[in-house]
Design brief:
single chain, 3 helices, about 35% helix, globular
């Protein structure tokens, strides 16, 4: 299963390191990544592969939510099909 992950918040040292460490420890593969700084705001979007993940999605979200609160970030993980359906233009 693939998912879209977004990370948004004020730029600070360690955002990429913290998020990618959680993903690596969870055996989640980053397939594609885009990141930028918009003024002082850090934004990152990733396509991740959850097929080999060693925990369930709810547990991963809980860990990422904890990191998000600690670092004042918004971190979301959505199944790729849901993301595509929500952002489709007909």
């Amino acid at each position: 299963m693939k998912a879209i992950m977004t990370v948004i918040g004020k730029d600070k040292v360690g955002i990429i390191a913290k998020v990618s460490t959680v993903l690596a420890e969870s055996n989640v593969n980053i397939l594609d990544i885009s990141q930028t700084i918009l003024q002082e705001y850090f934004t990152m979007m990733m396509l991740v592969d959850l097929a080999e993940m060693n925990k369930d999605l709810a547990e991963l979200r809980k860990i990422l939510n904890y990191i998000g609160k600690k670092m004042e970030l918004s971190i979301t993980v959505q199944h790729e099909k849901i993301f595509r359906a929500m952002h489709r233009i007909d």
